[in-house]
Write a structure and sequence with these properties.
Blueprint lengths: L10 H17 L8 E2 L1 H8 L3 H13 L3 E4 L3 E4 L4 H23 L5 H20 L3 H19 L2 H8 L2 H12 L6 H17 L2 H16 L2
Antiparallel strand pairs: 1-3, 2-3
Helix pairs in contact: 1-3, 2-3, 4-6, 4-10, 5-6, 5-9, 6-8, 9-10
């Protein structure tokens, strides 16, 4: 049976709720690549009509997370292998550039290290809770902290645009091998130590090994 929107709820806010829920289901892996689902499923979860859900699906198709199927619903778009490699190459270039820039102003390094240690501690907490999805979010936040430490506004905006793809790739990479999570934590600690040492070249080498070990195994 078709439901109606909550009383007093605007169409825009209803569409936003449908968008946020559906996107979270995709990024968390609860709706895996290739999965077909309907507007009615999402509408039923939220107590909405199908109209705002349809609007949400159109937004997510524009973000290349869904492929709409007329009269059936939507299919979750798998991460193309070529795109995953593109994301990793972009991450390596941006994070290495950010750290090189940071280390050119060594007086900023202690504050950056403190922020990175705080981000790493959040990751450790999520690992202890055995919450893969929260860990994947915290992992993305750790690496974004590296980029923000560089202070290049253009790179920060570009890197933020990779967040959704990065989180989805983290879930896909770590879900089948949860034993790799302690390795990720150890390597993040090593990246922080290298930044403290001021060796930009060593950071780039360690970062490449870290990304290879997590995503290119």
């Amino acid at each position: 049976m078709q439901t109606t929107p909550d009383r007093g709820q605007t169409p825009a806010s209803a569409a936003d709720r449908a968008y946020q829920l559906t996107k979270e289901l995709v990024l968390s892996g609860e709706l895996p690549g290739g999965h077909l689902f309907s507007e009615t499923e999402i509408a039923g979860r939220l107590g909405l009509s199908r109209t705002p859900v349809r609007e949400a699906f159109v937004r997510l198709q524009a973000e290349e997370l869904l492929t709409l199927v007329p009269k059936r619903g939507a299919i979750v778009a798998p991460v193309p292998p070529g795109e995953a490699e593109d994301v990793l190459d972009a991450r390596e270039a941006v994070e290495s550039a950010a750290v090189r820039r940071l280390l050119r102003t060594p007086e900023r390094t202690p504050a950056a290290v403190e922020q990175l240690r705080a981000a790493l501690e959040v990751q450790r907490e999520r690992a202890a809770e055995a919450d893969l999805h929260a860990f994947a979010e915290a992992d993305e936040r750790f690496h974004r902290t590296l980029v923000e430490a560089g202070g290049n506004a253009l790179l920060i905006r570009f890197y933020t645009g990779l967040a959704d793809r990065q989180r989805r790739m983290n879930v896909a990479a770590l879900g089948p091998v949860p034993d790799h999570i302690p390795v990720v934590l150890r390597e993040h600690g090593e990246l922080i130590e290298i930044i403290e040492s001021g060796d930009a070249a060593a950071f780039s080498t360690a970062l490449r090994a870290h990304l290879d070990g997590t995503h290119r195994r």
